């Protein structure tokens, strides 16, 4: 079932090594079929060069496997929480991409220093706290998802406008309207993490880009008045 | 019309992924036919691996599309301003290349620390200020071009000798006698941005290269007494 | 003899250039057959693109060559000491991979800043001191191995849980249950060295990941309660 | 004439792009035939992907072209000075490789922080001063060579044991017994420049490797008691 979905999720997973976002099996992509409430996700620990579309695992929003010969990604419960809370997203990706993970290890949100960032992500990429000991020991992956959601709510962030997050001492999650856009945003995140890292070294007194410039670039590409690209 | 021009502009655009200067569609190259006052430029948001010479868009110096099935690059109005003001240039390129963009985000001009820089760019690569709120909201891309021109005039810079600029919180533009040379200068800019970044880390009290060394290398390659290469 | 062993060691050696861990001949991998007490190791100074499985050298735990037309790696005596003391390991690798070697040159252990590290290495990657003048002049390579072993004992470290070490002013050794896993751990080491380097730049007041998070990730992948991957 | 020499020099030049040491035409390699006192060198400004063995230019130790359709490298006069003074070297290379050039721009010698460096280069890689205004304006390239030689003499350095130098605000020269070894040393230089850059960031109070460790590694590979590799 959902063969097209599995194929798209397979292809989106294969973009991770193509864009240099993964070492070994350190990443997973999923996409949800909102009608059935079922999503396809990479199996756990299977190497990218051995992956096939049929290997994708189907999971429902209770986290139960619906179809597949493999165990789903160990991060499946995080994907479930994000899909349940963020109704407008259709794809989720987790990686240990190098710069984004370094920011996560450092425990810092990535400020918006320029238009490369503002073109895709509205405002800083938030870094959420570590889970507590209790949260870790009891349903770690589920609690990771719940924490992201509660922090987005507390900060009043729109997950469509802020399609990425850093989990302190862990790494990034990104998302989008489908698996392909989620991976696209993960690439953007890695690039802006790299540029912000270097920009802070070049100028330790750096400030975020002016709000009006951030607005201009974000809305040049998003929303009713967007004029970048070839239109709809 | 202008098939040769479109082919050259296509080829120059394809050098951007070859030299690692672009992620996704984050760059555009143009070249002008000075006789007709028409330039060819990359269409907006079209992926590099799908691009063909026929996709190039022809635009006049009023910014009006003359030929092409696609919308031209969203930065077209900046190209127009540069061509109108800098009469001796024939090609323009905009990228979000990583090091140059990091310097732009940091809001700093790139000092000339060595001969790699001096061989191609006379003196520092200037970083121009952000646009004001009014300038952003009214004709952003056109005002970007006008600001570059007015800053070059105010600093008494010759755009032939200084073939690159950084726009604060945004990224670089580079140019040259044609599209190919513009891209060549964009590669140089990225390299000198990378070296300057590292050199400042290695020696925080670094000073620019002596003026006489900068002169020697610049004029070894440019002007009547140049002796690098195989002559004309 | 031991043709399968030589083939595996050859293949593991060839992973070093594949993963970008070596320049020229700066690395070597071995794997031991515990039954016979003989291990296969790369020959000294032979280039990777000329290497064949037959070139692997067989050596016993007294460091004597048992078979092979070439001299074994100049680091053979270090491998011997590690195999003699660390009974549960089956493969050893030495490289001059760039980030790990930079940490070794800096003389610092790599703190565990995140789950990328904790997934594979329990606690920091220790950096052991330089050998003394006497230790260097008398049996340098053997003493390198003895020092690693005595430092692991003194720090009460389990070499299975901490499968890597940095030798001050020299570089890393890594190991695993076989040659392939040893190389895998060397790749992990390089990645965590890179991330830790950047994370400290991003946040100079960075602290190691909480112990409970390190435990969670390590034991998610190792031991009786592991649930990452597809099980046994 | 000297067809074998030209072929070797061509091949050594082609190693520069292979090892990532050059952008565009920013590098040149030569090798001398000591019997005739003639060396082959890359032509000036010719792109690597168009180069052929026949394009190599033959030059004598007065700097006069002996054979070749092209002008020799603009740095030819520097090569001449190095061959005249350093009798035991047979190949010379100049690049603008990124890390080595950054150290040169910073005006700092590269300390020996580890065995990767000590395996090939005895002690620090010296950075020589900028030329004076007079030295630049009168025979710049020749004076670059003379300065390197006089600094090596003043510091009592053996060019066989220290096969590389940095020219302040310019870049590196390296050399060896032939063109191939010269390029090999240029690769080593870039690697040790990269590691030293990172090691200083990891530990700002870093000290050079102990002299006895430097000696051990240098003499493990060089001289009468060398035991690395497969012998002669």
UniProtKB/TrEMBL annotation, chains A, B, C, D:
SMART domains: Aldolase_II (SM01007). Its EC number is 5.1.3.4. Its cofactor is Zn(2+). Gene3D superfamilies: Class II aldolase/adducin N-terminal domain. Pathway: Carbohydrate degradation; L-arabinose degradation via L-ribulose; D-xylulose 5-phosphate from L-arabinose (bacterial route): step 3/3. GO terms for biological process: arabinose catabolic process. GO terms for molecular function: aldehyde-lyase activity; L-ribulose-phosphate 4-epimerase activity; metal ion binding. It catalyses: L-ribulose 5-phosphate = D-xylulose 5-phosphate. GO terms for cellular component: cytosol. Keywords: Arabinose catabolism, Carbohydrate metabolism, Isomerase, Metal-binding, Zinc. Residues 7-197 form the Class II aldolase/adducin N-terminal domain. It is an enzyme of class 5 (isomerase). SUPFAM superfamilies: AraD/HMP-PK domain-like. InterPro entries: Aldolase_class_II_sugar_metab, Aldolase_II/adducin_N, Aldolase_II/adducin_N_sf. Belongs to the aldolase class II family. AraD/FucA subfamily. Involved in the degradation of L-arabinose. Catalyzes the interconversion of L-ribulose 5-phosphate (LRu5P) and D-xylulose 5-phosphate (D-Xu5P) via a retroaldol/aldol mechanism (carbon-carbon bond cleavage analogous to a class II aldolase reaction). This is L-ribulose-5-phosphate 4-epimerase. The lineage of its organism: Bacteria, Bacillati, Bacillota, Clostridia, Lachnospirales. The gene is araD.
